[in-house]
Amino acid sequence: MSILTIALNTLDDPRDKDHAHGRATAYDAIQDGTPLDALEARLEWMEDPTVSGTTYTAAYLSGYRAQITDWRASEYGFRAAITHNPTFWNEATR
Question: Which residues, other chains included, contact 40 with Cβ-Cβ below 8 Å and sequence gap of 6+?
Answer without folding.
Answer: 68
